[in-house]
Amino acid sequence: MSETLVRAPLVLDDAAADLLFRDARTPNNFSSEPVSDKQLRAIYELIKWAPTAFNAQPLRVVLVRSAAAKDRLLRHLFGSNAEKARSAPLVAILAADLRFDQELPRVFPHFPQAKDVHFSDPATREEAALSYAQLQVGYFILGVRAAGLAAGPMIGYNASGIDLEFFPDGEHKVLTVVNIGKPGDDPWFQRLPRLEYEEVFSEV
Ligand SMILES: Cc1cc2nc3c(=O)[nH]c(=O)nc-3n(C[C@H](O)[C@H](O)[C@H](O)COP(=O)(O)O)c2cc1C
């Protein structure tokens, strides 16, 4: 099927689809152009509307911008990830709040018992926090792109090191570290192949 026919059912305009998906890339290096707090707030005010189970919203974001903060983070990143983060004007540590249940009576008020009925067991609660927040990681990446910035997510790090360094309360777990900014010079390799529709979809 031609590209035009495939795209026809989309109601999102082409420029937005390109910005969010088709032209958006994961840079390996960044320009020094800063990322502002206004941009970050705009990103959050957009992505906060994306859905989570029980409306639980367990994602928490720690911003790493100063040289001192970068030093604390970079020593936990594996291999070339440290250089990638060093070049980014801003790095966000995306983590799951394992005590998201405490907000449930406020954010899911029509079923206030959810907190005790579904999440009183710590292991179940942790599993939920990680999976619900991981979904928000995806929203976060798209939100960054919606602000005209590039996101470079990374999971190549010492997770327990980052947790101890940035979340000493033991109530948060890192999910992804995301470099944010404008791409630098020669920022990426050739685009990697994606699976075809037929490889991914089936109907029963
Ligand atoms: C959750 C997640 C974790 C990733 N971890 C790393 C990483 O540790 N190091 C790295 O260089 N790239 C990492 N990547 C980047 C992916 O390899 C990249 O997004 C993918 O190959 C698509 O590249 P493209 O956006 O340029 O098409 C990660 C991407 C995601 C979404």
Kindly state the mean pLDDT as a whole number? Answer: 97
Major β-sheet profile: 4 strands, antiparallel
Between the first and last Cα atoms, what is the distance in angstroms?
A: 23 Å
Helix tally? 10
Strand order, biggest sheet? 1-2-4-3
What is this structure's SSE topology?
Elements: H1 3-7, H2 14-22, H3 37-47, E1 59-64, H4 67-74, H5 81-87, E2 90-97, H6 104-107, H7 114-119, H8 122-146, E3 150-154, H9 159-166, E4 172-181, H10 197-200
Antiparallel strand pairs: 1-2, 2-4, 3-4
Flavin mononucleotide binds at residues 25-26, 81, 153-156, 176, 188, 191-192.
Explain how this protein is built.
The protein has 204 residues and is of the alpha+beta class. It has one domain: NADH Oxidase, CATH 3.40.109.10. Helices cover 43% and strands 14% of the residues. It is built from 10 helices and 4 strands, in the order αααβααβαααβαβα. Strands 1-2-4-3 form a 4-stranded antiparallel β-sheet, sandwiched between helices. The longest helix is centred in the middle third of the chain and has 25 residues. It is globular and about 50 Å long. It starts with a helix and ends with a helix. The protein binds flavin mononucleotide. The site of flavin mononucleotide has 11 residues, from strand 3.
Brief synopsis:
The chain has 204 residues and is an alpha+beta fold. It has helices at 3-7, 14-22, 37-47, 67-74, 81-87, 104-107, 114-119, 122-146, 159-166, 197-200, and strands spanning 59-64, 90-97, 150-154, 172-181. The protein is globular.
List keywords for this structure.
43% helix; four-stranded antiparallel β-sheet; alpha+beta; 204 residues; NADH Oxidase; binds flavin mononucleotide; globular; single chain
